[in-house]
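hey m, so remember when u said the tokens were messed up on ur end? i reran from scratch. heres the input so u can diff it against urs
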Amino acid sequence: MKVILINKRKLGVTIIIIGLMIILFGLEKNFDMKLKFTALMQNDIKSLTQYSGLKNRLKYKLPSNWICRNQDIFGDEIVYHSDFKSADSKINGFVQVWNLKGDLKVFLQNSKSISEEQNLYKDYNIRRININGSDGYLVEYTITKEIGDSYRGIEYFLEKGKQFCRFSFFVKDTDFKENMPTIFETIVKTLEYK
């Protein structure tokens, strides 16, 4: 028969450390939501309004003081398009639903190649993300101009079966604030597509 000796002191310390880790994890989630709410409040976003499309299969929320306008799309690639802009016109963007033909990463690489022929980029970054259980990509870049303003682009591409949702935000480089990516992610997390 094998005898197992348990050091009560080590066991007690281990249980306390595990308990503290669980408490800190819970506080971190709560703090993250409060941080996002604070970022919205700092940018004068007091409430969100829900928008829907594609016979209520698509739902998302935008700040109530933003202007949103749906456009009729007639084609086989883009099946939904809605433009939006902030009340002060510093943030512009759109929401789209595309039919996905092939791999999303290949689509993004091809789009970048085509766009590079027309625009000058700096700080182009693409990374894999998961938002609300949907895999996709976050693409961040700055479009530079020889004359005029440079623009920051932050775009979310989320796979939904044989389609993908695109949430794009554009801000003049001079108007860009450090908390804007947090605001954009909070908005994208309101997206529901069935």
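this time it looks ok to me. The longest helix spans residues 8-42. if urs says something different then somethings off w ur setup not the seq
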